# Entry
Amino acid sequence: MTTQYKCHKCGLKYELDTPAFRCECGGLFDLEKPEFEFSRDHIIQEEWSLFRYIEALPFEQGSKVWKEISMGEGVTPILPLDPGMADVWVKLDYAMPTLSFKDRGAVVLIAKAKELGSKKVIQDSSGNAGTSIAAYASRAGIECEIFVPEATSVKKIKQISAYGAKVHIVNGSREDTAEAALRAAEKGDAFYASHVYNPFFYEGTKTFAYEIYEQLKGAIPDSVFLPLGNGTLVLGCYYGFRELHHLNLIKKMPRIIAVQAETCAPIYEAFIRGEQSIKEVVNTGTLAEGIAIANPLRGKQVLEAIQATAGEIIIAPEKQILDAKKALAGKGFYVETTTAATFAGFYSVYKSENRESFGKVLIPLCGAGLKNEE
# Structure
């Protein structure tokens, strides 16, 4: 599948081997992909990883590099949240090699970097994306440097280091961390494996939608509740379902209900104001560190994706996050706090509004609880 980078802002196209990680106008790259065919017959039934959908992923025809890198990520279970809530289902995306859904994007991005001949990658992260990139870079034999904010969980930092990556702990915010990584990437001696800048990451997270399509035999849920920080899963989910709809494999798009942290919710604030531009906010602190993004660079794209599904954006009440985490543990699911925030948002509207309006609901369990327990 021959692809190019295309600037979302001005439309200028770049070849994939460009050292640039954004357009000369400052815009972020999307992928310009050819039309492709895909159906259930294209699923590789004997492949037990997300690469069972390789025919829908942007690799060169016949490329096998992913076989050296995959660790069986994806194909995660879908099951009821609770026997008494027949219309609410969860997808166990923490059942991944590094215990986070970010493995979906990381394995595709690193496999593509390997295919392009990259020897070194740089990335910035609040933790989970960093652990994923570090793990797959190690497996691919690619040198790796990860920049993390000082507030990152000690366990996540230890996990990144265990994979052999060089960890740079940045004194400051998530935004300060991104700036430090950008300065390093601008030196031009490494592939910037950013889950925000590089659109190949979203090609990985879109497999979340492909799996739902396959596992539920096309019976797509009416609503999906997703965490929203930079929009890694929201955009991937939207792209996946949009492709499936375009291919006439599903009859409808699910509504995307995105959940932001109460104390750091720039896209939510634009949504409720009815505006299309996202204004940077001040992160005043939240338990949901994984979605505490004060200035989401793809915020406008995220907003457009949610609106295209007739979806909405809600907030996770900060005081209800730990209660949600405890409630999930009571059902057998031990999740990290950011995942609990998604459920805090879900519970707040599911209990107070007409639950029938959400129809059949699916929610991912994105990260395991052990990742942020000291």
Remarks:
- The first helix runs from residue 103 to 115.
- The mean pLDDT is 94.
- The chain has eleven helices and 13 strands.
- The chain has two domains: 78-99+201-372, 102-199.
